[in-house]
Every structure is written in structure tokens, then in C-alpha cells.
Amino acid sequence: MLGPVILAASRSDKMRRIVSAAPVTKPVVNRFIPGETVDQVIPIVEDLTRAGLEVTLDVVGEDITEVEQSHAARDAYLQLIERLAELGLGEKAEMSVKLSMFGQALEGGHELALANVRPVVEAAAAIGTTVTLDAEDHTTLDSMFAIHEELRKDFPQTGCVIQAYLFRTEADARRLAANGSRVRIVKGAYKEPAEVAYLDKAEIDKAYVRILKILMDGEGYPMIGSHDPRLIAIGQELARKAGRKLDEYEFQMLYGIRSEEHLRLAAEGHRMRVYTAYGTDWYGYFMRRLAEKPANLLFFVRSMITKN
Q1: Nearest residue to 100 (alpha-carbon basis) of 69, 131, 129, 125
Q2: Ranges for the Proline dehydrogenase domain (predicted)?
């Protein structure tokens, strides 16, 4: 299995240097990460929304080591929100944040991350949009869910992410669905031990369907994060059986992957949101995209072989 190997490499400083220095890396990275600055990504957002799509924006970066870096992450999102407001894009573009980038792993990290993310959520609400808290490895989730619950007291549209490969997720889904939360379900993209997660693809897919049914039957707003045609079709059927209208759930896919499917779902009347990342600290995000799907890795390797 190449996935676990790539995920291990995503934490390796040596591999970071090798991949970053490879001549072909930048063109391939651009497939998944369309810019490093707000000025570079805003035109992408405008193009996507003109095409009938919605967007969630992620300023990439994690594994910070200094409090000052967490403040810089907060400020980067506040700058993004300011630009979205100027262009009237608040209703079409939300934000996704990783609490590790907001200081969650530092000393006193839970309180620090909450203090950093709250002004971002407040600013997002002021322009008519919201924030979704991304899920990271299993050791961070209790803190993430507690911050999510705290933020929802004042900003009930704040979303969160759950990962189908974790054993705990069915219980988390039941709680979140009962509470009426906005929940993105994904398969999961971190290297997790067998004690806490399914490692077999078929078992992960089965768990995904069970969890998605819980969300569709619940009181919240499901966000189906998948590029898998079978799971997309199952999601549509579960929504139909639950009596959900097209605006009562949405699909989410990554920028640069199955772009024609983005447009097809939007043309059918579905809410289709494109997860669009940008920033200079792209390595961890990029490596997880390679690990998630063999086709992504083959695309990278082929580019390295054929590059003149």
C-alpha cells in the first residue's frame, strides 16, 4: 500500500526538501493548489462561482511551532475574508481551517486555537458566510469538536469534518446530526493506527455509507466530500429517501480533481462546493492528495518521467 508510505513522507523534512526541489513539482502542485497568495486565488474563486459552483478556501499550513505563527494564520484568513467582502463573494465562498495552524498543538493550544479562530468565524459571519473546522489526526479531534461546540453557541452555522475510517465516527455523526450541525464527511487522509481506524478500503467505504445515512436522516446539513462516483450516487439516493431537497445538502470535491463532475452536478441543480487551497506551505496538503488516490500519484510520477 503506497498510501501509508506517502503519508509518512508528508511528515519528513528530508522528503519535503527532495520533493520541493524537483523541477517538475511546481507545475504538478499547481493542479491542486492554484496560487500562493490571496491575489492569485481570488480570480480562481471568481471563475468557479461564475460557473455556478461554490467554494471553500483553505490557507494551507500546519505543524506550527510558535505562537506568532498561529497569529499569522489568523490574520491570513482575516485578509482573505476582507477580499471576499470587497468582491461580494461571501455567499459563495466559505473557509476551511485546520486548528493545528491556529496553535492547537502548542502549550495551552486548545485555548489558543479557540482564541485565534473565533475572530475568523465572526468576520465570516459578518459577510454572510461561515467556517468549517477540518478534521486532522485522531489525537486532535476531542479538542476540535469542543471548539466546534463552543463556536456554535454564537455561530450555529459553523461546520466540522468527520472521517469515515475512524471507529469513533459513527457515534460522532449521531451526536452532530441530532444537534443540527453542518458536517462534511470524508474518508480520511491521515496515517492512523489499526487500533482506531479501518485500514481496508472496502471497510472504509462501508463505514462512509453508514455514516452518511446517519447524517441524511438527521437534523443537520450533510456535506458529501468524495470524488467516488459510487458514493456520490449513493449520496443522491440517501438524500432522496430522506426527503431532502437539493439545497438541504451539498457535494464537495477538491480543486483540480474531476472538474467536469463539478460542473455536471451543479448543472443538475446540486450545490457543488470546490475545496480550494492556497499558500506557500503546500507540502503536507499536496502529499495527502497523492496518498488519497493512486491516480494522483501516477499523475505526479508521469510528470517527472516525461519532463524534459
Answers
A1: 69
A2: 45-298
pLDDT band of 4, cuts 50, 70, 90: low
User: How many CA atoms within 13 Å lie on the side-chain side of 166?
Assistant: 23
User: What kind and span of H or E run contains 225?
Assistant: strand 221-225
Residue 185: its H or E element: strand 182-186
Task: Quote the pTM value.
Answer: 0.87
Calpha distance 73→62 (Å, rounded)? 9
Distance CA 249, CA 197 (A): 26
Does pLDDT of 6 surpass 60? no
C-alpha of 85 from chain center:
22
Residues 6+ apart with CB under 8 A from 99: 113, 117, 133, 134, 136, 140, 143, 144, 147
Dihedral Cα 259, 261, 264, 266, nearest 10 deg: -70
> 80: burial class by Cβ within 10 Å (0-12, 13-18, 19+)?
buried
**Per-residue pLDDT tens digits for 126-169:** 999 999 999 999 999 999 999 999 999 999 999 999 999 999 99
Q: Is the dihedral of CA 79, 80, 85, 87 positive or negative?
A: positive
pLDDT at 202 over 90: yes
Amino acid type, 46: E
Q: Each residue of 87-137: pLDDT tens digit? A: 999 999 999 999 999 999 999 999 999 999 999 999 999 999 999 999 999
Collapsing DSSP to helix, strand or coil, 179 comes out as coil
- The phi-psi region of residue 57 (left if phi > 0; otherwise alpha if psi is between -120 and 50; otherwise beta) is beta
CA-based nearest residue to 234, from 219, 246, 220, 216? 216
In degrees and rounded to multiples of 5, residue 71 shows phi and psi of -70, -35
Is the Cα dihedral 97, 136, 185, 174 positive or negative? negative
C-alpha span between 301 and 144 (Å, rounded)? 35
